[in-house]
Amino acid sequence: MTRATPTTVRPTDLAALRAAVLDSAGPLAVAGAGTAAAWAGDLQHVDTVVDVSGLSGIVVHNPGDMTVAVKAGTPLRDLAAELAGHGQQVSFDAARVARGATVGGLVATADAGPGALVHGTLRDLVIGMTIVLADGTVARTGGHVIKNVSGYDLAKLVHGSYGTLAIVAEVVLRLHPVPAASATVVLDCPLDEAVAHAARVLARPLEPAALEWCSAGSGPATSDGRLLARIEGTAAALPARVERLVDTLGPGAAEADAGEWEAHASTVRGRPGQAVLRIGARPSRIGGIVGALPGADGPGAGVTVGLGTGVATVALPADADAVESAHLAVHAAGGTSVLRDRPAGFGGPAWGPPPSAIAMLRSVKRAFDPDGRLGPGRFAPWPLENSR
Amino acid sequence: MALDDAARAALARAVGVENVVDDPVGRRAYECDGLTGYRVVPDLVVLPRDAAAVAAAVRACAEHRVPFVARGAGTGLSGGALPVADGVVISLSRLKRVLDVDPVDRRAVVEPGVTNLEITAAAAAHGLYYAPDPSSQQVCTIGGNVAENSGGAHCLKYGFTSNHVLAMEVVLPDGSVVTLGGDSAEQAGPDLRGVFLGSEGTLGIATSITVRLLRVPETVRTLLADFPSVAAAGDVVSDIVAAGIVPAAVEMMDTLAIEAAEEAVHAGYTVGVPAALVVELDGPAEECDVQFEQVKAICDRHGCTRLHIAGSGEERAAIWRGRKAAFAAVGRISPDYFVQDGVVPRTRLTEVLARIADMGEQAGLRVANVFHAGDGNLHPLVLYNAAAGETERAERLSGSIAELCVELGGALSGEHGIGTDKACSMPRMFGEEDLATMGRVRAAFDPDGICNPGKVLPTPRLCGERPGKYRPHPLEESGLIDRL
């Protein structure tokens, strides 16, 4: 039996978004720029796709308060361009921002980039949110101020929910000044040496804004690559800080241009035909975990490792068994993993074993979406919806 | 309905009979937290010695449908640890172990009864510290910080408790034990850790907490600057922000707060000046030096009448002693006072202070102001004399100030929490659907409503059968947000 093609609706304001939810009955998926449409579990059949790209633009930017409210379908790179005119930024640099990823999608997928070392992920930068639940409820949480402990922080629940709990309509973000100056230092070395270098860098008062290792893309993926460190600050102080960093890293370390980060982002995104795994673990373990993954040392694999954050991205040949054993290996080391892009019909599991709080996740899912309308399949193979 | 014998017996079995406080005098010690105006003597107090006993106590409560309230040091200022009549207080004061300090991954695992400052003390040997620093950090516990998502003077740059807790072992209201969060910021699925942090003890009890530790900054530069007006001091803060500087802390005190603090701790503040700013920068030496010169120039530009730069660790400590003592010090210039906690967008600081002054004048009461100027978090201290019958007037004034913050686009609470104190004010900030959605979260965690009931969310029983008429949020009136 062939199922009907889903109906796509494209609301352009909050009222229309709510109407789109209320006017449909069956399973529903949210679509933004589509940069993570294939991440996490395969979306099962839906009757309706709510395209939020029409919910776009700044609602209000308060430069003096360093906050901005944007509609969820706003591409972050467009927002960044607007804010740059005020010398401000959202301190967030996930790899797919360059592809036009929307603010709402970046929150829902809990994405992050190298800058998370200092600024955290979007969960740390979102100060308010408006969401629409599966029954049309419109709820606001947080506000327009940085410091706020008034009521439950519903935005945290949305972070990493992959469209299964609510549809994000609007996001309020805290902003930071664009650093007056920034420099990148690189050192060619294998991953295990980079881990040791990073420990020394972090033990000294160098305060890097990002500290990563990235495979070169040619040789074996965990031995052929380079350490990348970014320093941000004032123009006057930067040269001395860069010098200290270069000294700490030792022979071979040198200043490079910011284009290094674009290569890093490209490795994070992976190549067509690969299965991209996102992994988080203790920083001291992440190098070992990644190094031991089946296929990670193959010449076609792509690896980035956050040496201070413990967050890695590994693009492996698309082999379902390898991905399954990777999930289990990460879990055994206390980490978490999720499958991102992979070829259509790949079939390998998107998630490792469920967290200990799976029963609580199920309760929250039931409380927010009792009919299981939103994002069916995104958390498969976890038992998120099957207990109704 | 009082606690029945079966429930008492179950709780005694759960924690051990020697860890139960049953006598009226002993129980009375738990009747309130730092918000002393609200008092309820609990039916029973249990002091479990470890996480397993906490879980057993919660299981006993769940089985017998007994409401329970978790309690740390009892320093909370919103009545979040106020006991429930006919309920149990579960004190975490005996879970005081630092379980692990890991200098390589820069994190510590601690039990909830460890004080905020003890974490830093345990990490100090490795050149590390725990960043969030509520003024009560010598006594307040990390468990309470988790419940309240506590901030502190340095959270402008470094963030709040929520930004520094990686994982927690949590006893849920049904007595089951789960881990929320994990070894890195990369979590599998929705951020349950994030919603638990700051939930004011209504979603469960954390029995072990993994916190991030930061490297002690290479350099710290601190100055104390006097200004001819609150507005001038406010302009300095604006210019610092506009210059792209993110200070570690920017604190402001008005003339009454300065007077009180100086009388109490003789920290070197200038009595009689209208406003003083404490500005602290930290970070790599080169960076700090450049920005500190910029800050000094900004101060001069706005008519700074005295600039005192801390020349030593002791002088820096003295400046902070004055600031942190300000709350308690107000007791020296007034027999009684209420501590308020509200937030406004930082750019509205001058406006809100002027309005608070007017409101104080109208009420015939003095208001001292101490606040985290960098993030717009105000702590107006409403001074009054209970013996002269001023309590009700002062309470009304204090409540109106919090609501004024909401009216100006801010928040009811920046760091003290909603607790008992402001639950009935929540409809001023949130609409029915917002609160109902928060209620869904609560019901998902605690379907029987036994975990710190009556806090955070307004209930008809608490706030009167007829909730007040809905008033649109000012952002709604100005067209910035919709409510459908």
TrEMBL record, chain A:
Residues 1-178 form the FAD-binding PCMH-type domain. It holds the Pfam family FAD_binding_4. Gene3D superfamilies: 3.30.465.10. SUPFAM superfamilies: FAD-binding/transporter-associated domain-like, FAD-linked oxidases, C-terminal domain. GO terms for molecular function: catalytic activity; FAD binding. The keyword Flavoprotein applies. Keywords: FAD, Flavoprotein. The keyword Chaperone does not apply. It comes from the Bacteria. InterPro entries: FAD-bd_PCMH, FAD-bd_PCMH-like_sf, FAD-bd_PCMH_sub2, FAD-linked_Oxase-like_C, Oxid_FAD_bind_N. This is FAD linked oxidase domain protein. The lineage of its organism: Bacteria, Bacillati, Actinomycetota, Actinomycetes, Pseudonocardiales.
UniProtKB/TrEMBL annotation, chain B:
The keyword Flavoprotein applies. Signal peptide: none annotated. Its EC number is 1.1.2.4. InterPro entries: FAD-bd_oxidored_4_C, FAD-bd_PCMH, FAD-bd_PCMH-like_sf, FAD-bd_PCMH_sub2, FAD-linked_Oxase-like_C, FAD-linked_OxidoTrans_Type4, Oxid_FAD_bind_N, Vanillyl_alc_oxidase_C-sub2. Residues 38-216 form the FAD-binding PCMH-type domain. The keyword Flavoprotein applies. Residues 463-484 have a biased composition (Basic and acidic residues). Its cofactor is FAD. Keywords: FAD, Flavoprotein, Oxidoreductase. GO terms for molecular function: D-lactate dehydrogenase (cytochrome) activity; FAD binding. It holds the Pfam family FAD_binding_4. Residues 462-484 are annotated as: Disordered. This is D-lactate dehydrogenase (Cytochrome). It comes from Pseudonocardia dioxanivorans (strain ATCC 55486 / DSM 44775 / JCM 13855 / CB1190).
